[in-house]
Specification:
Order of helices and strands: HHHHHHHHH
Number of helices: 9
Number of strands: 0
Strand content: under 5%
Helix content: over 70%
Radius of gyration: 23 Å
Largest sheet: none
Structural class: mainly alpha
Distance between the termini: 61 Å
Shape: elongated
């Protein structure tokens, strides 16, 4: 049987996503991924601190090397949850809801970091810590969506029962992602338009662009490192909870004859 035929067999991707196999594969990948993330962040920070200052923003432009990657990761983290939500609702992927639960706190942390660094950057540039313009407001709504998803997950003791409503809430929240992306084009806001991902190419000088890209790559590998660790932790947590429930049922079953006597 060819590899293509094997992949087309029902249950191939389910077998590939077996929690035990995931634990085995991720355990081998994590040291390399963590090392790569640390290396990229160290190199990126060095390049960021040695990059030239902006002629208008001065030294405050260095906030960009944390703010922009954090903002990218806030949206990417949510899209990871959206894909996982489809895996829960459509393909019944055995690790999809685990992925959502693992990604939500990490995405919320990056979103908070984007909001905090944006305020620090906005004060000297705009003269205010916060304005309710389209970009800032939509990112704040994203942060609230993360918190709502986390709250819904924790409100239900059974993760299996929580998987479907959480997945539906995640998919509803995806409508906010294009609003964040295109808000600076659709409305007149204080926030500057895109300077890196543009049809006509980046408008940032290469001396600033390269450190920014390395920092973004370092943040991305850090996200996936943390996500894999969190998924492993959630798998083990569920296994321990399952063993405790089984042990409790066994104790009740053995206690009944004694009580009858």
């Amino acid at each position: 049987m060819t590899d293509t035929a094997a992949m087309s067999k029902p249950g191939f991707f389910t077998r590939l996503a077996n929690p035990t196999r995931y634990l085995s594969y991720s355990g081998k990948i994590l040291p390399w991924l963590g090392g790569l993330s640390a290396l990229l962040l160290v190199v990126g920070l060095y390049m960021a601190f040695t990059a030239p200052e902006d002629y208008q923003q001065g030294v405050t432009v260095r906030i960009m090397y944390v703010h922009v990657p954090a903002a990218w990761l806030s949206m990417m983290g949510y899209m990871v949850m959206a894909v996982s939500a489809l895996g829960t609702l459509i393909w019944r992927h055995p690790l999809a809801d685990v992925s959502i639960k693992a990604a939500a706190p990490i995405g919320a942390a990056f979103t908070f970091l984007a909001l905090a660094t944006g305020s620090l950057w906005g004060k000297p540039m705009w003269g205010t810590w916060w304005v309710w313009d389209a970009r800032l407001t939509s990112v704040f709504v994203l942060f609230l969506m993360y918190l709502g998803i986390i709250a819904l997950q924790r409100a239900m003791d059974d993760p299996v029962k929580a998987a479907r409503p959480v997945a539906i809430l995640v998919l509803i929240g995806t409508i906010n992602i294009p609003i964040i992306k295109f808000s600076v084009d659709w409305w007149n806001t204080l926030h500057q338009p895109a300077a890196v991902v543009r049809m006509d190419g980046p408008t940032i000088d290469p001396s600033m662009l390269y450190p920014l890209l390395i920092m973004a790559l370092g943040f991305t590998t850090l996200f996936f490192f943390l996500h894999m660790v969190a998924m492993r932790t959630e798998i083990w947590r569920r296994r321990v909870a399952s063993l405790r429930r089984a042990s409790a049922r066994e104790q009740k079953a053995t206690a009944r004859p004694v009580l009858a006597e």
